[in-house]
Backbone:
């Protein structure tokens, strides 16, 4: 998370959940891929990391 988000959160007294709801928290671009292609993509994209996974559910985001 870029330092500017920490500053915004502290100065405006914004809850962490709200920060994630409003801002992308510095993630930038997201690529969604099948598990089979994920490892190959990660090896070819410098600085990339696994952000999470998609699962069937009730249309919500769980940070963890």
Residues:
């Amino acid at each position: 998370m870029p330092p500017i988000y920490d500053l915004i959160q502290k100065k405006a007294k914004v809850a962490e959940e709200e920060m994630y709801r409003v801002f992308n928290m510095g993630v930038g671009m997201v690529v969604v891929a099948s598990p089979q292609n994920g490892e190959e993509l990660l090896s070819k994209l410098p600085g990339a990391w696994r952000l999470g996974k998609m699962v069937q559910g009730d249309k919500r985001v769980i940070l963890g």
Observations:
- Residues 1 and 35 are 25 Å apart (CA to CA).
- The mean pLDDT is 86.
- Helices lie at 3-12, 16-22, 35-44.
- The chain has one domain: 1-64.
